[in-house]
Design goal:
This protein has helices at about 5-30, 30-40, 40-45, 50-75, 105, 115-125, 145-165; strands at about 80-85, 85-95, 95-100, 130-135, 140. The chain is α+β, with helices and mostly antiparallel strands. The strands form two sheets. It has a three-stranded antiparallel β-sheet. Strands 1-5 form a two-stranded antiparallel ribbon. Helix 2 (about 30-40) packs across helix 4.
Amino acid sequence: MKTASLPAALNVTGVAAAMALLYVFLRFTKVGLAMRASAENPVSSRLAGIPVSLMLSLGWGLSALIGAVHHAIGDSTHHDRVTVQPVSIAYVCYGGVPVGRALRDKVAWYGETELVPHLMNVLSSGAVDVTVSWGDAVGYGMNADRKQIARDAEAAVRRMTARALRSPAAQPSGTEGTAPSAVPAFDQT
């Protein structure tokens, strides 16, 4: 098994830290909120006194900065390949009941839903069975088509999620060696 070198690990850590800072900036600062408001509804933002053109320019500037960092990393001599490993997180049971369409809204995070309150609801809701599946790590060259990488990763995640949702629920710990009963539990007397 090949391990990542220190510069590669620092790159991953740096990108994760930058994404976290960008999230906090856009989510919790007045300027970040003004940028989001200007992008979502420029007319209302202008009426609320937000300098829309300045906020949009700031957004383009941040985008250019992120692009410049990407270009600098892409031209780096530290690596010539990038490894992508798809991960699937499938919520298979909610309170002991298999998650179907009726319960999906209890665990699914939809785009308009706030992430932190949603996570708090899921974590406080009781027993939620989750299957985490790790796909095969695939190495791509630095000039690989990013859209093809995304399509490959999406297909792998769809396969892993479908497999997790179709497989029988995991048995509780310590029951692996016991044979299943021939008579359903509610019919036993």
